[in-house]
Specification:
The longest helix has 13 residues. The chain is of the alpha+beta class. It has two domains: about 40 residues, no CATH class; about 60 residues, no CATH class. Helices cover about 30% and strands about 25% of the residues. The structure holds zinc ion.
């Protein structure tokens, strides 16, 4: 069986563990399926993995909280048609309670939240 080394996790895996990519000579994607899934979920920033993130969208004076910044920012852009340019991370923490407190505090002092 054909094997390939994943460019991300560097493990040697059977070719069936990679998505097909006809643009590549090997016919398989560079990243294995689990690395690809991880990337799709959390984006390139490993530090945000498994963390609650409070973020700021300057164009809307908006503060939001998410467990998945990459996906949320993408949703703001595509689904909500928001301007996400220059977004900032206020805090990234494993504690949902702390993230929620920070978010609530920022809403109290005047930042907007689309749901509120
Ligand atoms: Zn991998």
């Amino acid at each position: 069986m054909k094997h390939q080394i994943c460019s991300k996790c560097k493990s040697d895996k059977p070719i069936s563990d990679f998505h097909r990519d006809s643009r590549r000579e090997s016919g398989a994607a560079r990243y294995c399926k689990s690395c690809k899934q991880d990337y799709d979920k959390h984006g390139p920033n490993k530090k945000l993995r498994d963390k609650y993130v409070v973020y700021y969208l300057p164009a809307h004076n908006y503060i939001g909280m998410t467990y998945n910044l990459h996906r949320r920012i993408r949703a703001h852009k595509t689904v909500d048609k928001r301007n996400t340019a220059g977004y900032k991370i206020v805090i990234a923490t494993r504690s949902k309670r702390i993230a929620h407190l920070v978010e609530t505090f920022l809403h109290i002092i005047g930042f907007k939240g689309f749901r509120y």
